[in-house]
Amino acid sequence: MYNYQNLVYENENGIAIVAINRPKALNALNAATMRELNDLCDKLAQDKAVQVVILTGSGDKAFVAGADITEMQAMSAIEGREWGKLGQLVFNKLENLPQPVIAAVNGFALGGGCELAMACDIRIASEKAKFGQPEVTLGITPGFAGTQRLARLVGKGLAKEILYTGDMIDAAEAYRIGLVNKVVAPEELMAAAKAMAQKIMMRAPVAVRLCKAAVNEGLDTDLETGTAYEAEVFGLCFATEDQKEGMAAFVEKRKANFKGK
Ligand code: DAK
């Protein structure tokens, strides 16, 4: 159990449920929240009791409505650069956590909020969710890798349209363009995220983590280097008890009982 001012944390049978908790400011990310997220990522990376992470926003209106504009308003260029570096560090840690991370997007995911959702492995959206990168309406560019992750997720043309216009898109459109994996009714959001987490937890844990590492490593490099990395992690699986159990269970026509070893 971890205690924070701006995050609500609970571990529900191996699923860490983390809510950004500043509902009065639509969960906008201020520096204090970012530092707490940084600390939490360091702890989760070492936490053997957590198999999957679900990230969401408190309240029924917002996932995260962006970086905190009131805090950014008076920043100098140097402070802006430090803020950008902190956010990028935290989002990179989140993206590279050993555990799979599911964003349960319950409402507005704008600016830094959309970027936060994109740093997660999988996004499940409520029908009420809205996405966008409105930075250009504020005279800035995205600073937490929105220009990079959005283009990788939805392609160059659509990313540029979203970035240049600052328009919001609804959950159905986000699904259509591949920004979210699934859209569900608001009241079903957490159940859908937990169901996906539970399904992932039934699979061989080491293999799941190696899949994550292979996708993340591979997408940042060329196909040849990526497939070489895949061959390495594939080979590593044969050093696990779970590979023996998984294949024995198939041959014996029974359900596999994985131990994460
Ligand atoms: N920051 C601070 N407060 C926010 C906020 C935000 N991003 N979003 C909402 N709030 C606050 C509102 O000020 C209001 O506070 P009170 O007036 O009640 O004190 C409260 O949350 C409720 O919001 P509204 O009254 O506005 O609620 P509505 O339903 O009318 O509108 C809205 C909801 C989401 C459409 C609206 O709040 C809105 O447009 N919010 C701002 C969305 C936005 O522009 N987000 C992007 C922020 S920019 C970088 C680093 C980082 C970034 C960029 C560069 N570098 C270092 C290079 C990141 C930038 C961003 O994320």
Describe this structure in words.
- With 261 residues, this protein is an alpha/beta fold.
- It folds into two domains: 7-201, Alpha-Beta Complex (2-enoyl-CoA Hydratase, Chain A, domain 1); 205-251, Orthogonal Bundle (Lyase 2-enoyl-coa Hydratase, Chain  A, domain 2).
- Helix content is 48%, strand content 16%.
- The protein contains eleven helices and ten strands.
- It has helices spanning 31-46, 69-72, 77-95, 112-118, 146-154, 156-165, 171-176, 189-202, 205-219, 223-237, 241-251, and strands at 7-12, 15-20, 52-57, 62-64, 101-105, 108-110, 122-126, 130-132, 169-170, 182-184.
- The strands form two sheets. Strands 1-2-3-5-7-10 form a six-stranded mixed beta sheet, sandwiched between helices. A four-stranded mixed beta sheet has the order 4-6-8-9.
- α1 (31-46) packs parallel to α3 (77-95).
- The longest helix has 19 residues, at 77-95.
- The chain is globular.
- The structure holds 4-(N,N-dimethylamino)cinnamoyl-COA.
- The site of 4-(N,N-dimethylamino)cinnamoyl-COA has 24 residues, from α2, α3 and β6.
- 4-(N,N-dimethylamino)cinnamoyl-COA binds next to α2, α3 and β6.
